[in-house]
Write a structure and sequence with these properties.
Spore Coat Polysaccharide Biosynthesis Protein SpsA, Chain A, alpha/beta
Length: 312
């Protein structure tokens, strides 16, 4: 049986070598599995690729994919999934927050009959705003893309090979890996863990990037926002119609009452803003459809090391 370890790499020149060595030591100490480590260089501005080349020279178990530009973590994962050879796939970050020594807690849980097992962090060390953002994302995921209640999907997870085979069938340029996994299976379990501190630097995810990632998931895997827009549009149109009738009736009953120019302008501005909001939402869907029709790539590979190139 073989394990494929997939590690997206960005600005990790000072951490990724230690992570890869810890992965190798952990799997070799266990002794039950053959393995490969696939590192995806997401075109960072530091010397990450140089370090990865050194790891390739050290071990034939290490394989590297290098992108032409920065495509993002989820595109990097898709590139890794396209090249896995193992029966089990495990994903972890390059910053040391997902301890490789804990990987068999996830892998062994698969033996209980689950298709996918993810870490669930019970003692967070992240900033409050990031924790709050994660909780909001989990709640929205549960309602919009069918995440089972009580289940969390994190970057530290393991799953059976057939999930990777199904996920890579998605060829559009906006991959949201967790949503793609949920398309394949709901047979998911969590293992409680403590997230380690980041070994160096800070997260590459800004608030704007996190928002973009959430938007990818919700527009790619759910029409609920469009349906909500339709319901809200109908609701506010009804309120506006009723309010107009009330104004007309009151004017007939009490002619001296002013119609209220300011209130009229406020209502116009409110409904105009609401319309623009929903038009923007619809435009987001249409824009993504246009980009998908133009066949924009999920990623583009400049070089590979220890494996053959697969473009998507």
């Amino acid at each position: 049986m073989m394990i494929s370890v997939v590690i997206p790499c960005y600005r990790s020149a000072h951490t990724v070598a230690d992570i890869v060595h810890r992965v190798q030591n952990t799997i070799e100490a266990d002794g039950r599995y053959d393995y490969e480590v696939i590192c995806i260089n997401d075109n960072p501005p530091d010397e990450t690729l140089k370090v990865l080349k050194g790891l390739v020279a050290e071990s034939e178990k290490v394989k590297v994919i290098s992108f032409t530009r920065n495509f993002g973590q989820h595109s990097a994962l898709m590139a890794g999934f396209n090249n896995v050879s193992g029966d089990v796939v495990i994903c972890l970050d390059d910053d040391g927050q997902n301890p490789p020594e804990d990987m068999f807690k996830l892998i062994d849980k698969l033996d209980d009959g689950y298709d996918l097992v993810s870490a669930r962090y019970v003692d967070e060390h992240r900033p409050l705003i990031r924790q709050l953002g994660s909780k909001v994302a989990m709640s929205m995921s549960s309602h919009l893309i069918g995440m089972p209640k009580g289940i969390e999907l994190n970057s530290f997870c393991t799953f059976k090979r057939f999930i990777a085979d199904e996920v890579v069938r998605y060829t559009n340029p906006y991959p949201f890996v967790h949503g793609l996994m949920l398309r394949v299976t709901r047979n998911i379990a969590n293992v409680d863990m403590v997230r380690s501190d980041r070994e160096e630097g800070s997260s590459g995810y800004t608030i704007s990037k996190l928002f973009s990632l959430w938007l990818n998931g919700f527009t790619a895997f759910s029409v609920t926002p469009l349906r909500a827009a339709s319901v809200c549009g109908a609701l506010f149109a009804s309120i506006g119609f009723i309010a107009a009738i009330v104004v007309v009736v009151r004017k007939f009953v009490v002619p001296e009452i002013s119609a209220g120019y300011s209130s009229l302008m406020a209502a116009i501005l409110f409904f105009f803003g609401l319309n623009m909001l929903f038009l923007g939402l619809i435009g987001e869907y249409i824009g993504r459809m246009y980009i998908c029709m133009n066949e924009a790539p999920q990623f583009a590979i400049r070089d590979t090391y220890n494996l053959s190139r697969k473009e998507r």
